[in-house]
UniProtKB/TrEMBL annotation:
Domain of life: Eukaryota
Name assigned to this protein: NADH:ubiquinone reductase (non-electrogenic)
GO BP: any one term: energy derivation by oxidation of organic compounds
Catalytic activities: a quinone + NADH + H(+) = a quinol + NAD(+); a ubiquinone + NADH + H(+) = a ubiquinol + NAD(+)
Annotated segments matching region Disordered: 1-25
Domain External alternative NADH-ubiquinone oxidoreductase-like C-terminal, first and last residues per copy: 432-497
Amino acid composition bias (Polar residues), ranges on this chain: 9-25
Keyword Transit peptide among record annotations: yes
Family: Belongs to the NADH dehydrogenase family.
Organism whose genome encodes this protein: Cyberlindnera jadinii (strain ATCC 18201 / CBS 1600 / BCRC 20928 / JCM 3617 / NBRC 0987 / NRRL Y-1542)
């Protein structure tokens, strides 16, 4: 059963042994309240995030053995594999969102959810500082505070912390990207791309043919030839070929997508045969592909790209654009990079929290990291986050069954991994199930594996249906699955919409 924050009732009732309320009387700032566990007989696990790692963890953790406290500024799980389908409306954004409470309500024990951002992890105090992002004041008319006020800070005490805050888009410090580019990581990003794209097309429609401004507005540049960039370019091209054709037949031939990739090939995680197939499909659908080309600077209406020829010579090009989609990968979030400085064993970390084979953050005995914010020498994918989360719940569920294990672990200051070994915990073993990518024109590529064994490797229309079937299987709820199928059915019958405000 889920509870929307209940621990902060009259703050004077807080147990001072678990922190109580810091009065802050010595300072001009009100110190954040410290929130003690709901049930002090059970250890508290604070879980940061509501993405692949955190929600897969929530689904499998035995919440009768732990107080589970979920903290995330995003109140829903997002099925990211279908996010590239959203800007053009192949799939509706709401179809791939599932509220955290739908998962929490299915749990037997108590689960508390804070719509809040973790601003600081404090391993020395076993607390996490959170800032409420809810814009609903939780103080009712009687003055009883049942949660956090908007923007209020609080400190949550934990016995175990599971960090699954993911990562954020990387701009590599390239000037102008933040201000002018659209990322594709979250729902608002999808809406922003749609708005900009339709807005550009409508503006271009007011200009005469041959006007360079019309050409600029009708150029969509996608930077990054990884799966996010390729799938987004493919979906945009589908929209142009099938739907924009009906709405704006007079300009559809002039819309040009340019896909820019710094490496010699796109989708470099696939084998050569599949990347060649992908490049051919992209070119056939008239996407202009610029490989060996790195974007170096972005201005509001154009960008500067540098193409390195095989002989090493570099040519600089100015590319005007109407819409810029930026998909060049991830970097760690600040709340995570701050931890790098706080724990000596993490001082050398740069891509994520360094974890051992039990997903334990090295240098701690009660912090775990899963998904994109963990550095386990694995790619930052949903399947990795999901498997790590399932593994970690097995570990924590087993820990709860071993008498005195929590106390033993708490008192352990070094060689923590030996304790896990002694109790027969198995290290995490990732099983790679393959990779899939949609290319547009109802064609996809796929490499389906089980670990080192490959079962299928191919590309085309059949692979597109395999891609759809497997992605449906990956969706975490039946409600979402049904809505996605309904969206596919709707576009097959009536095509996509083009409302920039929706
Ligand atoms: C467009 C796109 C398509 C993708 N397609 C695929 C695919 O087809 N297959 C695949 O395997 N992988 C895919 N991925 C990668 C996959 O989405 C990630 O690897 C996966 O989401 C990582 O899971 P995570 O839990 O680590 O992070 P996320 O799923 O990103 O979740 C992070 C969570 O942390 C929350 N959060 C952020 N900051 C804080 C904070 N300070 N405090 C508390 N919570 C915070 C966020 O709101 C979010 O809920 C795709 C990614 C993108 C962007
Ligand atoms: N279908 C799928 O399985 C799928 C879909 C989307 C994302 N993902 C996963 O999510 C993660 C992130 O994917 P992604 O596609 O966002 O990023 P990515 O890191 O996979 O690809 C980014 C690409 O951008 C290129 N790049 C970087 N800087 C550049 C520049 N200045 N100019 C031009 N190109 C530049 C890089 O060479 C790289 O190929 C990956 O692990 C990926 O596997 C998987």
């Amino acid at each position: 059963m889920a509870t929307i924050p209940k621990p902060t009732e009259p703050t004077t009732q807080q147990n001072t042994a678990t922190g109580g309320v810091a009065s802050g009387s010595q300072s001009f700032h009100k110190a954040p309240k410290v929130i003690a566990p709901n049930d002090s007989n059970k250890p508290t696990i604070a879980v940061l995030g509501s993405g692949w790692g955190a929600i897969s963890f929530l689904k499998h953790i035995d919440s009768t053995k732990y107080n589970v406290v979920m903290i995330s500024p995003r109140s829903y799980f997002l099925f990211t594999p279908l996010l590239p389908s959203c800007p053009v409306g192949t799939v509706d954004e709401k179809s791939i969102m599932e509220p955290v409470v739908s998962f929490a309500n299915k749990k037997k024990g108590d689960v508390t959810y804070y719509e809040a951002e973790a601003t600081s992890i404090n391993p020395d105090k076993n607390t996490v500082t959170i800032k409420s992002v809810s814009n609903i004041s939780t103080t009712n008319g009687l003055g009883i505070n049942v949660g956090l006020d908007p923007n209020e800070l609080a400190e949550i005490k934990y016995d175990y912390l599971v960090s699954a805050v993911g990562a954020e888009p990387n701009t590599f410090g390239i000037p102008g990207v933040e201000e002018n580019g659209c990322f594709l990581k979250e729902i608002p990003d999808s809406k922003k791309i749609r708005h900009k794209f339709i807005d550009s097309v409508e503006r271009a429609n007011l200009l005469p043919k041959g006007d360079p401004e019309r050409k600029r507005l009708l150029t969509v540049v996608v930077v990054g030839g990884g799966p996010t960039g390729v799938e987004t370019a493919g979906e945009l091209q589908d929209y142009i070929d099938h739907d924009l054709k009906t709405f704006m037949p007079n300009l559809v031939e002039e819309v040009q997508i340019v896909l820019i990739e710094a490496l010699p090939v796109v989708l470099s995680m696939f084998e050569k045969k599949l990347t060649t197939f992908a490049e051919n499909v992209l070119r056939e659908t008239t996407i202009e592909l610029k490989t060996r080309t790195a974007v170096a600077k972005v201005e509001p209406e154009y960008l500067i790209a540098k193409t390195k020829a095989e002989d090493g010579t570099v040519e600089e090009t100015k590319i005007p654009y109407g819409v810029l989609v930026w998909a060049t990968g991830n970097k760690p979030r600040k709340v995570v990079t701050d931890v790098f400085k706080k724990i000596p064993e993490q001082n050398q970390a740069n891509r994520g929290l360094i974890v051992d084979e039990y997903m334990r953050v090295k240098g701690t005995n009660n912090m775990f990291a899963i998904g994109d914010n963990a550095f386990a020498k694995l790619p930052p994918t949903a399947q990795v986050a999901h498997q790590e989360a399932e593994y970690l719940t097995k570990t924590l569920n087993k820990m709860a069954r071993i008498p005195n294990f929590h106390q033993e672990l708490q008192s352990r200051t070094e060689k923590v991994d030996l304790l896990f070994q002694d109790h027969g915990f198995k290290p995490f073993k990732y099983v790679h199930l393959g990779a899939l990518a949609y290319l547009g024109a109802e064609k996809a590529i796929a490499n389906i594996t089980y670990g080192a064994k490959s079962f299928y490797s191919g590309g085309g229309v059949i692979t597109f249906y395999i891609w759809r079937a497997l992605y449906l299987g990956m969706i975490l709820s039946w409600r979402s699955r049904f809505k996605v199928v309904a969206d596919w059915g709707k576009i097959a019958l009536f095509g996509r919409d083009a409302f920039k405000e929706l």
